[in-house]
Amino acid sequence: MGEEPRGEGALVLLFALEDLRRAHGRLASPGADPRHDTAAFRSFRERLLAAAADGARAPAELAMWWEGTYNGYALAVQADPASAVPNEDPGGGRN
Predict the structure, then answer these.
(1) Interior CA angle at 48 toward 54 and 81, to 5°?
(2) More exposed terminus of the chain, fewer Cβ within 10 Å: N or C?
(3) Closest C-alpha to 17, from 71, 85, 63, 86
(4) How far is the C-alpha of 81 from the C-alpha of 11, rounded, in Å?
(5) Average pLDDT over residues 58-72
(6) For 13-63, how does the pLDDT look when each residue is reduced to its tens digit (9 = 90+)?
(7) What are the distances in angstroms from CA 37 to CA 12, 42, 55, 65, 85?
(8) Which residue blocks in 4-93 are alpha helix, DSSP H?
(9) In the 8-state DSSP scheme, what is residue 20?
């Protein structure tokens, strides 16, 4: 998971597609095309929204979109303002 600033006061977290498949892929229907079977994505979204709501310090808007290059894809999740949700920094602390 990486993070990058996106706009004034927003926080963007990146979740690698491979990590999401590893963690939630078992929820997909056997033999189903993962581009159309969204059970794994819905599971991740429900967990993410529950965690954001539980840890929220203030009202925030969340947005999701896919980022991609020839090296792979990541689900980007933006929280605005960043101060409304706790996040971990690379040094292991929390803000």
Answers:
(1) 70
(2) C
(3) 71
(4) 7
(5) 88
(6) 898 888 888 888 787 778 777 677 777 778 888 888 888 888 888 998 999
(7) 25, 10, 29, 17, 30
(8) 17-24, 39-55
(9) H
